[in-house]
Amino acid sequence: MPADSPLTAKIAPLLRVADATAQEGRTDAAANAFAELALLSLRRGDWNQAEAFAARATELARLAPKGPAESAALLASALVPAGRGELSTAFGALDSVKGRPVGTNATIVEPLALHIHLIVLIGLNDWFELGRLTERSEGTPVTRYFQRNEWLALRLLAAWHLNDVVLSDAILTEWGDALDVGSDPYFHTFRGLLLDRDGRHVEAIAAIRRSIELVGPAEDPLGRTWIRLVAGSALTRRGDTPEEGLGLYREAREELDRLGARVFVARCDSIMATSLRRLGALGVSVAQNPLSTLSPHQHRVATLVADGHTNREIGQMLSVSTKTVDFHVGNILARLSLPSRRHIRDLIHRSHQ
């Protein structure tokens, strides 16, 4: 979910409503509002805040008449555990609300249940059920917390993993025809995957590189890590150097670790270990030069930082937003284990000596 999307913009006014209804003693409405705040916070990557809002929803639901508000609070409390891979908690919440009347609460209960289902199915690699769920939910109000490109990405993720060539191509064509995809990192990632499938490897790598240039704070954190993992795999196999792909794996792992998404961290570790074994079997050595872990785009950004340009100037030069440049600079600092922009300049200048 974009940091500046309508959903994110909804958090502040919704929090005011939640607090006001709680003060008025309308505990059921307040519980629903805090449950929705938990979902919005999860989508923006603030899992600690999501847990805090879910706890508040649970507290209020206990004071409300037993009914739909309890379901919303229960599901809100399972959002972060689902992301962490705590399947018993996730499935327990889904089973507990199954068959309960939700009435007007369907507007929040159903999206909460959908998000938990999606996270669990992706964590389990259950692409068949993911395909069924996204097909069943397509075009319904329950998907309103997703932007259209995010929903198409979920549909295409299932189709691609199921090797459904016809459906994959149809979804990508629909995507390209219906939306402005020039600055959409999800679209370029999938385009790269499908081009690679068709043997068009040079075009595939170009699309993958473009997706990494575009990815930034506007994407859901789990979506960002998925893009990096796909790009890491492609660039480790077909990029100029394996270090670039391994650097993307490490970025993905660090973000997942910060979120506490343990099941996805474990998967990332497995992918990295497999890639290193494969490289070792091929006799490929991994360079120790820290700059070699940067992608070409990150190297351009780092060089422009070293030349004294501001992030706004860099964004104008590279045709990306200032927020995206902020995001890349933060990742460069993390990947190179540097504390400030000045240290980027020093490292770049030393490498040229």
Keywords:
single chain; 353 residues; mainly alpha; Arc Repressor Mutant, subunit A
Global Rg: 22 Å
Average pLDDT level? 85
Helix content: over 70%
Helical stretch tally: 19
Shape: globular
In N-to-C order, the SSE pattern is: HHHHHHHHHHHHHHHHHHH
Task: List how many beta strands DSSP finds.
Answer: 0
Major sheet summary line: none
Structural class determined from secondary elements: mainly alpha
Unreliable stretches:
none
β-strand percent reads under 5%
Q: Gap between N and C termini, in Å?
A: 43 Å
Please, could you describe this protein's structure?
- The longest helix is centred in the C-terminal third of the chain and has 20 residues, at 262-281.
- Helix 10 (165-178) packs antiparallel against helix 11, helix 14 (242-259) runs antiparallel to helix 15 (262-281) and helix 16 packs across helix 18 (322-336).
- The protein has 19 helices and no strands.
- Among the domains are: 1-144; 293-351, Winged helix-like DNA-binding domain superfamily/Winged helix DNA-binding domain (Arc Repressor Mutant, subunit A, Orthogonal Bundle).
- The two termini are 43 Å apart.
- The protein has helices spanning 6-9, 11-23, 27-43, 47-63, 68-84, 87-97, 106-123, 127-137, 148-161, 165-178, 185-197, 201-214, 221-238, 242-259, 262-281, 296-306, 311-318, 322-336, 341-351.
- Helices cover 75% and strands 0% of the residues.
